[in-house]
Amino acid sequence: MKIDLHVHVRKVSNCAKETPEAMAKQALEKGLDGIVILDHNYQVSREECDQIEKAVPGIRVFGGIELGVFDEHVVIIPTETIDFAPEYRRYMDDVKFLKDWVDRTGSLAILAHPYRYHTSITFDMNIFTPHAVEVAGRHVRKSDRMQIRELAKKYDMGMVSVSDAHKTRQLGGYCVNTYYDIDNEKELISCVKRGNYSLMESRLESINL
Ligand SMILES: [Zn+2]
Ligand SMILES: [Zn+2]
User: Which residues are near ligand 2, the ion (C-beta closer than 5 Å)?
Assistant: First the structure.
């Protein structure tokens, strides 16, 4: 299944918002089988995903959240409702706490667009190591890919390709192609953790790193 693990639905800022249904419909038209929808500091619930799946038959929709962790962004696909304080979703400065939460709940953590804002990672990766890192996407510079590969190797992280789309027209460029069908968040989490996917890039052709 071709799944885009990082698609925004605007929940926090409401300006010129395109509906989640429009995003799902466009994803389907671009050849994707599934999307993870999320927003900054906002966790999309399973109920919201169910509504979208009902409105747009043919696409699987999974829920996530994009957290601010020091000066990085980390995409989380949680197994349960995130219970920590709202200010922690905006700016998490206790990565040991985050690591313990992710481990305890069995959630998935993906380091988003590394080196976008700084030349090094701004939290201690020895304390909290995300399961995967974005190596291709709208917000990942091609010139950073080599450095990201080295980071992934050093910390034994998987690499994913995501659109990070905020608008429908930004969809379809990037995704992962899972080796088997994914039915729910838990299966998706396990699939990414095990690295059971290949990377896809523009026009859904395989990415050549
Ligand atoms: Zn981000
Ligand atoms: Zn994002």
Answer: 66, 164
